[in-house]
Amino acid sequence: MRKSAVLLPIALLLLAICSIYSCGRGNGAGGSDSDSTSHALPDTLRVGTLYSPTSYFIYREEQMGYDYDMVTRFGADKGIAIDLHVAPSLTSLVEMLDSGIIDLAAYEIPITAEYKPHVVAAGDENITTQVLVQPKSDNPITDVTQLAGREVYVEAGSKYLYRLENLNDEIGGGIKIHQVKSDTLITEDLIEMVANGEIPLTIVDSDIARINRTYYNSLDIGLPVSFEQRAAWGVSPKKPWLADSITEWMGQAEPRKAQARILKRYFELSKESPALSIDFSKGRISPYDRFFRQYANEIGWDWRMLAAQGYTESRFDSTAVSWAGARGVMQIMPRTARAYGLSSSKITNPEANIRTAAAIMKALDKSLSKKVPDSEERRKFILAAYNSGIAHIYDAIALAKKYGKNPKIWDGNVADALLMKAKPEYYNDPVCKYGYFRGKETTAYVRKVMDFYKRSTAHIRL
Hints:
Blueprint: H1 2-20, E1 44-50, E2 57-59, E3 62-64, H2 66-78, E4 81-87, H3 90-99, E5 104-110, E6 120-128, E7 130-135, E8 151-155, H4 159-170, E9 176-180, H5 187-195, E10 202-205, H6 206-213, E11 219-224, E12 229-235, H7 240-250, H8 253-267, H9 289-298, H10 303-314, H11 334-339, H12 350-368, H13 375-388, H14 390-402, H15 410-420, H16 424-427, H17 439-457
Helix pairs in contact: 2-8, 9-10, 9-12, 10-17, 12-13, 13-14, 13-17, 14-15, 15-17
């Protein structure tokens, strides 16, 4: 008894020492534990990100983006709430990690010596390069040496310009470099200009190129022109266990499948609308003219305008599903449909879909009536809000007012302000509350609807 009585305190002392020093699985001087199994995830995860075409944006009142979709899936799988914070810049995002305002940066932070003291990589690494954007052809440029004698357009002062200048030195000169002022055009504009044949070549990051190829299927983006850049989500060095938890989760089968679907949604599904010839000589616009007539009349619209929307939205395809999940003839988002009493089982029913679209237009008309008093001019604002979501139109009106444009006129004024929301200096402006938006799609949408409407009025009776 005496021997065991002596041994018991010694055993307890050894156990205490083992607990303090983690029995050889030490965590460094700070005492942080990198083993994810010893840390429970919080009930709410504070997540930071940036507005961008790849990470996070708002479209038709829905929060979207590759990083946003992935982190919300992580939260759903782990049963934790996501508290989202949007930073104005990458520097600010890293500072938010440093100060403990956020737990996780769900944004591709470059894995470089600059960020290593402040950020621990979490989850999958994303590898990008700068790529040459060129039209598809039978004789594409397949080697950087073939750029000698070619004209390449890039933003002035951008990383693409510096890379192109270095590349020019590497191949012995000969590249005809054109610098485009960034206050008049942005990278996405240059990509569109290549697609339209206005300029021959440009250079962008591969992820941006992949996003834009979904709008312009005629582009070839297969030639890398720079070294690979690694990037990943990040956590504070004080929380390596959180990085371990995220990395472990991303390696599981179901998250892998979800990631593949999300990647396809943003980087592969085409956003181009197929062409469709309409024969007005038959005295009709679509198989659904009776519905357009009925429900346009209920809201005081010319039915041909509503039909022009249906053409622009889906080419009158009641089974159409967009990359964003919008459905039916009038491409209504499921959440919006539910808000207007349209069930998911009936969202593709042509009559129900058109009836709901008319109700949405009526609500938008009411919301915009004070800001745009002229009813005819307001139609363009309503069309734009239907396509983008009214939040971005409110932002564009505020930007127009601030930067000397007429906030009550669409063409050349609020339309131009909406295009400004693709640039960080404007979507981070204090008057702009809903961040980045690819405004060129919405401005083109309004133009297409109005053009189709004008053509239909020349052939189809009211």
